[in-house]
Task: inverse folding
């Protein structure tokens, strides 16, 4: 054939490859993808049939995953061994192979031909390679009109194999990702169920322990008071943990309700600072609150929930700051929001941990080695409480220098200003 005659068909073939590569990258179902590849390979190499064999890690063989026509579907799922087949040779050597006369070639694995009553006359095969690793083989068989496979056929099949391998890998990765996501969702549901069941089931026995311990404390002599105090303190700590779990369970189930009331953030900060004054003092930490006396910062929302968020942040600041350090709480207006800041001079949080600390059960230090108690729920509860009010929460921190936790709550301007007037007149 002269060069002039082959040019148009070569360009046409390249155009088809460009067309098909667009289609391949948008197909997300492996079976349809492989079928599209074999159909186009048949057309472009002018072959009676094309099949795709993918490497099966479990059996260590190459398995037919796509075959040309409906009549050949029985081939699907059949396997060929790596060491006694042409496909196996192409795969292990990661090199193409052309057999112009395959009828008597001893390397052909005849079992497939026998069971499908197909006769392989000629064959062109190339490996499917991803990241320099073979994942399978694409084979075109029986060039039409008893023709010979040409260099152009090889070039076309190799180009197509390159596109196909990437598309196959993408679909496989997508499936893996979907499976992993489904598994994560399943585990997350299990975790939520566990939290809900545990918090519910532990409540009643714990209530009984607390009730009876308090009753015994009232009755008992002075020499047992200390032991009973330990029981009550420990039971109270357990109660806090169970309450945290119950808040998380409620949030998961969408059962949390927000009460809407006007309250002063200034007053809340003062209240909480007073509550923790003694604990800070005992630890040798200076706890300061800085709220403006002139400007009342009013929020319309659930005071109990915002108080819980603030309490968790202040408790953390005190926990992760050593003696001689400082903790400050302040609030300010910020364009339609009230911004609350909790700053400490404590141990700080490594930059790569800062995003994850708001995740449930996440703790920077392993719970096995850490000095402080806690379940890793405080910040996730604070986040849930703030987000319930359409607010935002974040942290800025430098390891060894300290942390700043900040949350912003939107001010319902109209109601807030009316409420502020009432506050002032009272
Ligand atoms: P926990 O109750 O276990 O402390 P939290 O959700 O409140 O859980 O906090 C998660 C983790 O974030 C903590 O274990 C700690 O490692 C880190 N962290 C929180 N607040 C601070 C802070 N102010 N300074 C340093 N680390 C903090």
Result:
């Amino acid at each position: 054939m002269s060069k002039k005659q082959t040019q148009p068909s070569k360009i046409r073939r390249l155009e088809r490859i460009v067309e098909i590569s667009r289609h391949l990258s948008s197909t997300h179902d492996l079976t349809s993808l492989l079928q599209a590849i074999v159909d186009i390979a048949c057309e472009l190499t002018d072959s009676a049939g094309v099949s795709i064999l993918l490497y099966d890690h479990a059996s260590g063989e190459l398995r037919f995953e796509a075959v040309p026509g409906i009549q050949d579907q029985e081939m699907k799922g059949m396997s060929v061994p790596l060491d006694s087949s042409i496909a196996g040779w192409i795969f292990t050597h990661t090199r193409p192979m052309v057999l112009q006369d395959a009828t008597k070639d001893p390397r052909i694995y005849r079992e497939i031909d026998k069971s499908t009553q197909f006769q392989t006359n000629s064959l062109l095969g190339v490996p499917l390679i991803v990241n320099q690793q073979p994942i399978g083989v694409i084979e075109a068989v029986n060039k039409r009109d008893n023709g010979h496979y040409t260099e152009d056929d090889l070039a076309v099949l190799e180009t197509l194999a390159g596109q196909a391998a990437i598309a196959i890998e993408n679909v496989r990765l997508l499936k893996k990702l979907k499976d992993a996501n489904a598994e994560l969702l399943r585990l997350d549901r299990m975790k939520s169920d566990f939290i809900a069941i545990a918090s519910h089931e532990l409540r009643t026995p714990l209530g009984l322990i607390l009730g009876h311990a308090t009753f015994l404390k009232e009755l008992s002599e002075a020499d047992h008071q200390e032991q009973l105090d330990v029981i009550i303190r420990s039971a109270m700590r357990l109660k806090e943990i169970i309450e945290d779990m119950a808040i998380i369970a409620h949030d998961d189930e969408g059962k949390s309700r927000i009460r809407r009331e006007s309250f002063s953030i200034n007053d809340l900060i003062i209240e909480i600072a007073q509550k923790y004054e003694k604990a800070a003092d005992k630890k040798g930490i200076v706890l300061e609150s800085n709220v403006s006396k002139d400007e009342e910062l009013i929020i319309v929302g659930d005071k109990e929930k915002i108080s819980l968020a603030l309490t968790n942040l202040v408790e953390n600041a005190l926990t992760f700051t050593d003696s001689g350090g400082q903790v400050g709480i302040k609030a300010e207006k910020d364009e339609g929001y009230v911004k609350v800041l909790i700053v400490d001079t404590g141990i700080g949080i490594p930059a790569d941990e800062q995003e994850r600390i708001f995740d449930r059960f996440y703790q920077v230090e392993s719970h096995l080695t850490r000095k402080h108690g806690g379940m890793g729920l405080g910040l996730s509860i604070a986040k849930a409480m703030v987000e319930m009010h359409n607010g935002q929460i974040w942290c800025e921190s430098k390891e060894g220098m300290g942390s700043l936790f900040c949350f912003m709550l939107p001010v319902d301007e109209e109601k807030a200003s009316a409420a502020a007037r009432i506050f002032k007149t009272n």
